[in-house]
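Sequence in, structure out. Go.
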Amino acid sequence: MEIDRESLVANLGGAAQVASMNSEAKADALEDFMMERLNETAPGNGMSGKYPTMAEVEAQIETRRHRRGVGNLFLSHTGNVKKLPPMPAQPTLADFFKLRFNVTSNHVLQSANLAMKNGMAEEVVLACLLHDTAQELIKVDHGWWSAQLYEPYVSEKVAFAIRYHQALRFYADPAVGYEYPDLYRVLFGEDYKPAPYIEAAYQMVRNHKWYMETRMVTVNDLYSFEPGVNPEIEQFTDIIGRHFKQPKEGLGADNSAVAHIWRSIARPDSPL
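Output:
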């Protein structure tokens, strides 16, 4: 792949930023830049290209200095990680959005904003707002992780929609405007078949009373990567107030079964 040096430098924040990076950071940044360009030239993005096979995707594993399943808080693609601002003594959901959900926040805010514009029920809007946030901690099985993170604080229906949106992403439903994403053919390989537990989850949800709520999360998830669209968490204050049980002690300090997960997100620099 031919690299446009000027575009690469600009993408990394300018020549001064590049000069401050060590060799490993530069190598990681170059790899990420190339992967972004690969995705741009993949089928379905308006340009010609060939989808990789599963074997070709697997062959990429040993070319990276990180594993794709690591959470966003624990990884930097552009130099060293930065010191995080301190959390308040009794952190709220909004505090986590503002201070920790740095990578996922715009996408999920867009997703919730789109769901609101599409006239979705408030519980679907909330599920859209929360569905990908566990990716700050871990990306693998993020639907299950996100649902577990929120179960003590939301309704069973919201947790269900968050958990199983991950399985439904791999299965088209043209009746509601959801097609299998071309990006997945790039990420997983064109011959990829979901794991048996994903298939079993899909079959269960397809016949469940909350199928449509879960499906609407995938619909409003897929089309929420629009540049220049920047909703704020305050737009959803009332919905959060009606449907999210904020513990008075603060998330991570309420001794719930998931308090340790919130603390892990709040304190990712702790060595133990």
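Check: Residues 5-74 form one domain. The first helix runs from residue 5 to 11.
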